Amino acid sequence: MIESNPPLQQHYGRLLQESGKGHRQNRSCFYDHTHHHHHPVIKECELPLIDLEGLKSCDERERLACSAAICRAASEWGFFQVINHGIDPELLRKMRREQVMLFDMPFEKKATCGLLNNSYRWGTPTATRPSQFSWSEAFHISLAKISEPACWGEFSSLREVINEFATAMLRLSRLLAGVLAENLGNPKGAVEEVCDESTCFLRLNHYLARPKSEEETFGLVPHTDSDFLTILYQDHVGGLQLMKDSKWVAVKPNPDALIVNIGDLFQAWSKDEYKSVEHKVMANNEMERYSIAYFLCPSYDTLIGSCTEPSIYRKFTFGEYRNQIQDDVKKFGHKLGLSRFLQETDPLK
Question: Where is the Fe2OG dioxygenase domain (predicted)?
């Protein structure tokens, strides 16, 4: 058999074999309980579409209506899409071209060359069963660590484009965070002042076409994002699904729009006014898919509180939150997230 780039089928096949030996009834299995598979998928739908030109309008009513639409979507959906967002379409095309060239490298080179500070990931190393495995590869890049020319190898043109792309995404994410903060009676800079170009992350995703012989497979397992908000640039190939009213909703791709979703930190800070919604990507058995996600994050020592008191969640640093997630994934196979930080109860106590 020809080995794929990366060797996803080999790893996934091993998990299938091991899971076929019978599930042991342990605590990890109890918390996994494959709840992700039991929700039906409803037909493909379009996310709320918001024209950001409204924020620049001379008409105050138009500005307020645009802001209200952003906040309503953040509360009701946790997801929305934006057009007229101010990011040059040519920059997006250049970013996509560089991304495709990057993933076209041989697997061994991607895995061993140290490119982008060893940020290459593939599959799910912590997976113990097929339901925890992601049929994809990615470069998950800390933007604090991309200043050194040595980390780019032969991809010097990628360095220039990523820096331009990250700057544009930071500007857009701060604009949206300001609207969302102001809606809750806070200064526009309440969130953006703790997030800058050195604390955010960029994830370049490549979802490989899965073999038709395999069962329906996650391109990215169900999860919520751990940041304030995420901006996603995706191609025309579908696959993104989100949880809405206890059903998985397939998101119809819109090539002219960027997708925005709320992260855990914004949900905690807003006292659950804005929703960090569970989402996933399903692997396509015919086409590969590319996307780029920009994560608006604070520094690891930033204390996450509440926009007003009393708070629903106890205060925690971003670093503490990430460490708890990593511990939970190792123990239970998936993230428990904000439920760990509720004021009154802990899900495991």
Answer: 196-298
Question: Which token pair is 220?
Answer: 């990215």
pTM to 2 decimal places:
0.91
3-state secondary structure of 233: strand
Strand 49-51 to strand 79-83: parallel, antiparallel, or no bridges (unpaired)?
Answer: parallel
Q: Is residue 128 within 8 Å of residue 109, measured between CB atoms? A: no
Whole domain around residue 226: which residue ranges?
A: 38-301
3-state secondary structure (DSSP) of residue 51? strand
Confidence band (pLDDT; 50, 70, 90) for 137? Answer: very high
Q: What pLDDT, on a 0 to 100 scale, did the predictor assign at position 347?
A: 54
Provide the 8-state DSSP code for 120: E
Three-class DSSP category at 12: helix
- What is the band of 109 on the pLDDT scale with cuts at 50, 70, 90? confident
Residue 340 lies in a domain: no
Q: How many domains does the chain have?
A: 1
- The verdict on residue 15 lying in a domain is no
- Burial letters 99-110, b for 16+ CB under 10 A, else e: beebbebebeeb
Closest CA to 257 of 51, 43, 69, 97: 51
Joined together, the tokens standing for residue 36 give 């992700």
Six token digits for residue 121: 């990931």
Q: Give dist(CA 39, CA 33) in Å, integer.
A: 13
Longest Cα–Cα distance of the chain, Å, equals: 66
C-alpha to C-alpha distance for 19 and 321, rounded to whole angstroms: 30
| 268-282: pLDDT as tens digits | 999 999 999 999 999
The confidence score (pLDDT) of residue 11 equals 80
User: Across all residues in the chain, what is the average pLDDT?
Assistant: 88
